[in-house]
Every structure is written in C-alpha cells, then in structure tokens.
Amino acid sequence: MAPETQHLEDFDEQDNEQILPKGAILQNRYEIMKILGLGGMGSVYLSRDLNFARIKRLCAVKEMISATADPHFRKISLANFEREANTLASINHPSIVKIYDYFTEGNRTYLVMENVVGKDLEKVVNELPEGQFIEEERLLKWGIEICGTLNFLHSQEPPIVYRDMKPSNLMLRADGAERLALIDFGIAKVFQEGQKGTMMGTEGYSPPEQYRGIAGPQGDIYALGATLHHLATRRDPKLEPPFSFHEALPRQFNPNLSELT
Question: 49, 120, 164, 236: which is the annotated catalytic residue?
C-alpha cells in the first residue's frame, strides 16, 4: 500500500495531510514512527528499518515533496536534494551524518540517513540561563572538531564547500562524548574555481562573496567564525548588521573568555 493511502485514526499532527502518518511504510522497509521536523518542502521522520527484524534499528528519513507549480523552482529543489544524497554517499567521516538510502515514491523523494540523537548547538546556547555562557574549554574543543571536519571536506578532490555553517546545523550527540555531527548538506557543492551560482546560505553567517553567488572553502571558514562568535557571546549574527560580527570582540560580551581565546 502506498504511504499516502495509509491513515491512522489518531493521527492529527498539525492536521497536515501532506505529513505521512505513523505506521506508513516506505519501500516495504521504512516504518514511520514520528515526525522530527517540518519544513516548507517536506518533513523529516524518525523511522524503523524493517530489514533488521531482530533489532530496533532507527534512522531519519528526510522527505522532499515536489508539489510546487513553478517548474524552475521544482528543478532547483530536486537538484539540491539529489546533490545532498550524492555528497553524503561519496564521503565517510565520523562528524558527518551517514546516508543509507535514496529513493522516490510518487511526487516525493526520500533520503534515509543516520538518526543523530542529540541537540543542535543553537538550542544548546538558547537554553542557557540568562547571563551564563558555554564554557571556554568546551567551545575550543568544538571549534577544533569543526575545523577538522571542514578540512576533510575541503581536502576532497575536488573540494566540497558546505556553504551553510551555523549552530543549528551542528548536532551535539547525546552520548556524553561531546561529539558533533554536521547535518543538512542540501546546499553543499563541489568547488570550481571562478564558478558563480545562486546565493545560498544563511544571513549573518554567510560571507559577502556568497551573496554574489561565489562560494569557496574560505566562505566556510568565515561562517565558522560567525558560528563560534555566536556560541561564545550568545549574540545571533542574523540580528546584527550584515558582516559585522567580527567588529565586536567576544570578551566584550563574555568576560569569562581568556585573552588568548
């Protein structure tokens, strides 16, 4: 039975008929357990891989619904989704979410990925009590780990440019080891010298040249600086004047930081 024809009497999450109901099964393999997130182009679900009958193997199923009437926008969206699948399938790194499967059913395309249990760093910093900051040692550890991940991506042949570094795309795994996972490779792309494209990224984190459609490894480093500044100071660069985060020294807002940092 196609997933869009399966319905449960008690399913009323946001009363959105586009959302797959609990119990829907994709590819006779992935059973939908619950919704993890909802976006403009689809949802992310927690699902169980039924191929592993003796254990409860969970995975995240990211969905893209091709329902827009604009053929150009639909083409771009599908290309971005396919790029994410191809990018993740071509690399293997402990700080990058793993991909398991990619398929299409009807007007929906799915990406089956590792289910990263944890909390994104934007939530981590936002949930701190007023006046408190993330510990400096913790920030430095995260920064070194992210640098290693970006170095891995930029060392590929050709280099992979992530293009959307920000706290909400960094998941702190809930295993107690303080390990991060870089998620959402929807706009990551292979770097080609001199190539221009469409502006992609997030306001406040993206460098000036990315607004002109120019994206290179150095842009990821700029976005990492904005990300770490946000985590250290609790000042969201999206709420500040464009390209200005570096003008305010972190110690102006977080007196707990050492001069060296």
Answer: 164
What is the C-alpha to C-alpha distance for residues 256 and 214, in angstroms, rounded to an integer? 37
Residues with pLDDT less than 70, the chain: 1-17, 40, 67-69, 187, 189-199
Measured CA to CA, the distance from residue 139 to residue 148 in angstroms comes to: 14
Nearest Cα neighbor of 95 from 139, 57, 60, 143 is 143
Tokens of 107: 């007007």
The C-alpha atoms of residue 230 and residue 239 are separated, in whole angstroms, by 11
**pTM across the whole model:** 0.83
Q: Is 184 a catalytic residue?
A: no
List the domains of the chain with CATH numbers.
8-114 (3.30.200.20), 118-252 (1.10.510.10)
CB-CB neighbours of 38 under 10 Å = 15
What are 38's two structure tokens? 């909802």
